[in-house]
Amino acid sequence: MISLYLDSSAFIKNFSEEAGSSYIGKIFDACEEGKIIVITSQWTIGESLAAIDRKFRRKEIDEREREISMIKVLDSTIQLARIGKLKIVPVREEQVRASWRFIGKHHLSADDALHLLSSIISLTEIFVAADNLLLKAAKSEGFNTYNIEKEDEAKGIIEKFKLSKD
């Protein structure tokens, strides 16, 4: 079965209307249908909740929208993980230490280095994000990469793996 690693920049798009959200929605639909497995880091959940809270603090959403969005992230993640359609790579101390090599090698943030390591240990071949520096690093580590915010790449992944009902 095809497995796709989603970093936080891609994952959050399933719960927030922004560039690439419709394509991530198709990926999650395919995940729910059992066509693919989505893999992400445990760290992604916290980053996603923080991104929602940041929108609230910037007054882009109100308190009710923040609460609903946070509940959706947690509920959807828990439900998909429980039925085995979403795999969450746990964050352990040894993984954090092992990810540090990618900070200097690829000039990544600590968060992105952890995502890169999580994708490596999860043995996925496809890395989806909206972060060009992280995608460049993932590509150099041997992944097939897709920038979900670039229309041609987003359409490409949907068509290549026949993830759309259309």
Structure description:
This protein has 166 residues and is an alpha/beta fold. It has a single domain (2-160), classed as 5'-nuclease (Rossmann fold, 3-Layer(aba) Sandwich). It has helices at residues 8-11, 21-32, 42-57, 63-82, 93-106, 110-121, 132-140, 151-160; strands at residues 2-6, 36-41, 86-89, 126-129, 144-147. Strand 4 (126-129), helix 7 and strand 5 (144-147) form a beta-alpha-beta unit. The longest helix has 20 residues, at 63-82. It is globular, with a radius of gyration of 15 Å.
Main attributes of the structure:
alpha/beta; 5-stranded parallel sheet; about 60% helix; 8 helices; Rossmann fold; about 170 residues; 5 strands
Q: Shape, please?
A: globular
CATH topology (level 3) name: Rossmann fold
Query: Secondary-structure element order, as H and E?
Result: EHHEHHEHHEHEH
The counted number of beta strands is 5
Biggest sheet features: 5 strands, parallel
Distance between the termini: 21 Å
Level-1 CATH class name: Alpha Beta
Summarize the structure.
By secondary structure, this protein is of the alpha/beta class. It contains 8 helices and 5 strands, in the order βααβααβααβαβα.
Write the topology of this structure.
Elements: E1 2-6, H1 8-11, H2 21-32, E2 36-41, H3 42-57, H4 63-82, E3 86-89, H5 93-106, H6 110-121, E4 126-129, H7 132-140, E5 144-147, H8 151-160
Parallel strand pairs: 1-2, 1-4, 2-3, 4-5
Helix pairs in contact: 3-4, 5-6
